[in-house]
Amino acid sequence: MIKEVRHIGISVTDMNKSLKFYKDLLGFKIEREMNESGIHIDSMLSLDNVKVNTVKLSISETNNTLIELLQFISHPNISGKSDITKIGTSHFALTVNNLDQLYSKLKNNGINFNSSPQLSPDGYAKVAFCLDPDNTLIELVEVLDTSIIEKPRGEE
Q1: pTM higher than 0.90, yes or no?
Q2: What confidence score (pLDDT) does residue 88 get?
Q3: Residue in 32, 29, 52 with CA at minimum distance from that of residue 42
């Protein structure tokens, strides 16, 4: 019944800072910007008097999954360091072409990483975790060996 992942929603404290990261540093493109309020959004979010600015971003025309940045004007933001062990969404992952190059670019722009890029034990990928401006944890993955393909559950 599910066709695809539609978008990943990320609450942010400063839309301009977040757009610098996602658009300028990572290369996402703005698809849609909206200022949302009214009974529809209040009802959907189970909140009163919501005012939220949203920006939907895409990485390419062939990938339908979007990132939706949400800056709530009406409700206070609570920010803190992401913890990979927390219950609920802990991070999201992006496949990249050249992790070493992206790592250097992001580090030079003040982006924090857990560590430098690490080679997975099976040689399948190089991986690094970074934090966006609001400490959302992002896994960056460069696939190195496509012959090691992750099999769907039940096929192991």
Answers
A1: no
A2: 74
A3: 52
